[in-house]
Amino acid sequence: MTTAVDNPFFARIWPVVATHETEAIRALRRENLAGLSGRVLEVGAGIGTNFPHYPEAVHEVVAMEPEPRLAAQARAAADVVPARVTVTGETAEGFSGGEPFDAVVCSLVLCSVRDPDGVLRRLYSLLRPGGELRYLEHVASAGGRGRLQRIADATVWPRLFGNCHTHRDTERAIVEAGFEVDVSRREFTLPAWAPMPVSELLLGRARRP
What InterPro entries does the annotation carry (predicted)? Predict the structure, then answer.
């Protein structure tokens, strides 16, 4: 089932943001994909920013991007990378599945899905036993930054940035979906004093038991 996401404003600004990411974020993207192999499902591929960084041991990537304007750019990116990448307009909730995947990759996407708990349960079901969930996500911060995130989430931020919610406890949701977290850490990609709700990212690896 293909379920289009019509977000023309975000589709205009995200390519600009993605092509001007800091080197710190690019390094975290590469680390998030390091060591993967086999068949991989990528959720919310955007314009295909991850595609050049997949290791040679990955023999197939199925990349979901339901926003048609972004998906068109992702397909163009897929055509010029060594990895075998197929871009689909399906959402995680409606994805038809097929053979189980060896890994699922989420990069700056779980903040924007409408039902993160349901999406994570679906991703769990699409992995083979022992398969990995790799995630690089916006994460709820503590203290003053957390208060800023809650204000941003309750006002204009989700409307401007494709339903992005910056104050989600993503790792708790990952565990509650049945995954076992192997490693995770938080990283600031902007100075800690910067008044931005998305300065702190969570990088981690979890697996389906």
Answer: SAM-dependent_MTases_sf (IPR029063), Thiol_S-MT (IPR052356)
